[in-house]
Amino acid sequence: MRKIASWQSIIDKIQSKLQAWKSSCLSRAGRLTLIKAVLNSLPIYYLSLFSMPKKVTKEIIRLQRRFLWNVDKTGRVLPLVKWEIVQQPKCKCGLGVGDLVIKNTALLFKWWWRYASEENSLWRKVVQSIHNEDAAILPSSSLSKIPGTWHSIKKTLLEQKPATQLFFQHLKLSVGNGNKVRFWEDQWAGNFSLKEKFPSLFRLSTQKSAMVSAMGWFEGTLWKWSLAWKKELSQQEAELMANLIDLLSHHFPLPTQEDSITWKGKKEYSAKIPQHLLNMEMEVEVDRMVCSVWMKLVPPKVEFFMWLALLGKLNTKEMLYKKGLLSANQTSCTFCGSHLESLDHVLLHCPFSWRVWNSIADDLGQKLVSHSTFKQFYNACLSVQWRSKGLKKIWVSTLFAVSWRLWMVRNELIFQGKELNLAEVYHSIRWRVAEWTRAWKAKPPYKVDDLARNFSTIPAIMQ
Ligand SMILES: [Zn+2]
To answer: Exposed end of the chain (fewer CB within 10 Å): N or C?
Structure first.
């Protein structure tokens, strides 16, 4: 399975599910849902057994990117946001697409875990005999020369990339009678192996592959260590040995217990947890405001739009100019025609947009204060206090509705040649907010019509 050809059927399946025609029929939020669904279902079987070659990962990501973002006439993808961000979970400002390499490693690690926890299974016995594994709970850290699935799983995990390191960190061996724990190689006396901690002593040991139980004996109930060396220890080595014995005074075999293993303190391993853990432990600068958009108050496509807006990634004329797709004389605002069409201008500062904002806020009894950026304005609006949760939800939905509608109107003017109609914009914003309330768990006790037609009475009627 190291060959790309072996993975072709998976690539083909993903390609057929993520075809361009489907992309053009779906909103970005719809495309995102499909990307996640296809990825979560298709290659799990392969990913659980085989290490995905880098080229295959790249190809799958290429297909996902093409599906999510638009493609120009020459077939070039025009991404609005870097894929590394898209992959991250929503609580880390991403879209939660997930990282294929992490998923693959988490699923492969399950075999490490199963090897350790299914001691009497036939497959483990077969692997042990073919690959010369000893009787220890965990697989050894050496690779046999015999190729095959086990060899490649082990190789991938032993490479200890950042992703794998985390899996090993949470794997804890508890020494019981010490019959199945390797003294030098396994991590049983701390977050390290004694081989790594005392390399010079390991080199001198004549018991390199011995289990803990073979490294001493019980004198009554007291455990006595008996370490054997190739030669007499020098003074420096004797000091190291004293350190080692000191360390071992806290870790020693217990005659009545079996050696055991846990993962994050549990006796079960779930491939979902490490993915979640890795996502959580990844050091990413988190912008709380960007993460706040997924409130489930408005349709996913509107949340997606706000996510882009707060990341500053809308394709405004200013942005297109910066990307070299428009010339300097094509960058004036679609609404007023007299300013540069930046994101902050078109969604907030433009006289037309500001009129829309004020008119809708007036209805809800709010006086707006402009801010230098749209993002600051969004934040200020989110912090407005309301006397009831229902009102706050209407207010936040209105914030999304106005922003989204302004952007839609701007696009309709450019791409459909429509005319600017202030009354129609007000009207459509009110109706949208009213319609969206239908999808809430706690719906307001009013009909959509009533809410939309009597928008300005909402603060009075909703307690
Ligand atoms: Zn303007």
So the answer is: C
CA distances (Å), origin 100, targets 14, 42, 116, 175: 13, 12, 25, 35
pTM > 0.90: yes or no = no
Q: Give phi and psi for 428, each to the nearest 5.
A: -70, -30
CA 419 to ligand 1 centroid distance, Å: 15
Residue 263 CA to ligand 1 centre (angstroms): 57
Q: Show the domain range for 191.
A: 171-263
- Same domain (yes/no): 207, 352: no
CA of 433 to the centre of ligand 1 (A): 24
Q: Is residue 444 part of a domain?
A: yes
Helices (H), 6-139: 8-17, 20-25, 28-41, 44-49, 54-68, 83-87, 100-117, 122-131
Mean pLDDT, residues 39-67 taken together: 83
Three-class SS state of 332: strand
Residues 376, 339 share a domain = yes
- Angle at alpha carbon of residue 403, lines to 360 and 345, rounded to 5°: 105
Q: Residue 117 C-alpha to ligand 1 middle, in angstroms?
A: 65
Query: What is the distance between the alpha carbons of residues 117 and 124, in angstroms, rounded to a whole number?
Result: 10
Interval 82-116: pLDDT, tens: 988 888 888 888 888 888 888 888 888 889 899 99
Q: Which H or E element spans position 274?
A: helix 272-281
Ligand 1 midpoint to CA 332 (Å): 8
Domain identity same for 306 and 454 = yes
